[in-house]
Design a protein that fits this description.
Elements lengths: L4 H11 L6 H11 L2 H6 L2 H6 L4 H4 L5 H14 L4 E5 L7 H4 L7 E6 L8 E5 L6 H16 L3 E4 L5 H11 L4 E4 L13 H9 L3 E4 L11 H12 L2 E4 L7 H11 L3 E4 L7 H11 L3 E2 L3 H12 L14 H8 L4 H8 L3 H13 L3 E4 L2 E4 L3
Parallel strand pairs: 3-4, 3-7, 4-5, 5-6, 7-8, 8-9
Antiparallel strand pairs: 1-2, 2-6, 10-11
Helix pairs in contact: 1-6, 8-9, 11-12, 14-17, 16-17
Length: 361
């Protein structure tokens, strides 16, 4: 869906309003039909939808207009994109969430979001073995065709991004700040390399949003929501990584955890997840086997092997997005992404500019 400049500017203004989260944003669009109409509606109409006055009052202010204008200027620069929840280019798996971000700012290549993504998360104060494990798993999984998704934090997140880059693979960093307020600053160089090597930086927050503790759990739902599964490498029981893992389970994603020594505090969070039903992982093949099992949970995907997979017949006819393939084959987007990951590892398909294409064996 192509939005006219006035509607784009109106959505950016709505997006900057305080206390206007994803569900309230979508409520306004559903009630008024467009962001432009919502902005021009009387405050009483907003109150009738259950929105507080603090949402409605600043919508016509000069400060809100300037922040929207700054975002439009940002979008004029190369490798900058804004994905909206009702656009066909919006990540299909993320779009299934009831609180899907209405806007996603992307720096880098948005096609990275179209690939099957596997999230890797863990402690910011990880041990050296934990960092090495994260890097090695990310290197292997990225080499096998997955985009590695994490949060650009210190520790396991950074190691996962680094491993993916070492393999020449794609990696996606979801920020808990605006893209113009990169955090932590120590990872500014890593963020630049992610963009340079075909990955993407992603945030639902206004570009100028600074680090705020409450925004990081919100960020975690995007990490898990973009991914077919979440691998927790090392985490204490109080780690934010466990929030990501539990969100993933609620979203119907696979959760994997790497066990460790009973004497190491960083292993306790992973052990707790395994007790709660996460798949115990000792090798990359454990992850791939679990994904294949997840793919086969639907009768529609139970019988075909790689050579006769229904996705291949669709792609022989024409390149398609993952969402287009799901519609054409009558499968869920999760099943399609899991199948595509296996087909890509087998060399039968490739993702080019956001479209999946057939590759002859």
């Amino acid at each position: 869906m192509h939005h006219c400049p006035a509607e784009l500017e109106a959505r950016l203004r709505l997006h900057c309003l305080p206390e206007l989260g994803p569900r309230r944003f979508q409520r306004l669009l559903q009630a008024f039909g467009s962001a432009s109409s919502a902005l021009s509606a009387p405050a009483s109409a907003w109150r009738s939808l259950g929105l507080p006055a603090t949402c409605a009052e600043p919508r016509r202010s000069a400060a809100i207009r300037e922040r929207a204008s700054a975002a439009l200027r940002w979008l004029e620069q190369p490798h900058r994109q804004l994905l909206m929840w009702d656009d066909p280019t919006y990540p299909a798996l993320l779009g299934e969430l009831h609180d899907a971000p209405p806007l996603l700012f992307v720096a880098g290549d948005p096609a990275a979001l179209e690939r099957p993504q596997l999230a890797m998360v863990g402690s910011r104060r990880a041990s050296r073995p934990g960092l090495d494990t994260a890097r090695a798993f990310a290197r292997s999984l990225a080499g096998g065709g997955f985009a590695i998704t994490s949060g650009l934090a210190l520790g396991i997140d950074g190691a996962a991004h680094e491993g993916a880059l070492e393999a020449g693979g794609a990696t996606v960093a979801v920020l808990g700040t605006g893209l113009e307020c990169l955090y932590p600053q120590r990872h500014a160089g890593l963020a630049a390399r992610i963009v340079e090597q075909g990955g993407a930086l992603v945030s639902e927050l206004p570009l100028d949003c600074p680090p705020q503790a409450s925004n990081f759990p919100r960020r975690n739902r995007i990490i898990s929501g973009l991914s077919v599964g979440v691998l927790v490498v090392e985490a204490s029981p109080s780690s934010g990584s466990l929030i990501t893992a539990r969100l993933a389970a609620e979203q119907g994603r696979e959760v994997y955890a790497i066990p460790g020594s009973i004497h190491h505090p960083g292993a306790r969070g992973c052990h707790q997840l395994i007790r709660e039903g996460a798949t115990l992982v000792e090798s990359v093949e454990d992850v791939l086997q679990a994904l294949r099992g997840w793919q086969r949970t639907s009768p529609a995907t139970e019988a075909p092997m790689v050579d006769e997979h229904p996705l291949l017949s669709q792609l022989r006819a024409a390149p398609l997005t993952s969402e287009g393939l799901a519609l054409a084959c009558g499968l869920s987007i999760g099943e399609v992404l899991a199948a595509l990951s296996e087909l890509e590892i087998a060399g039968r398909v490739a993702c080019e500019a956001g479209f999946w294409v057939h590759r002859a064996p």
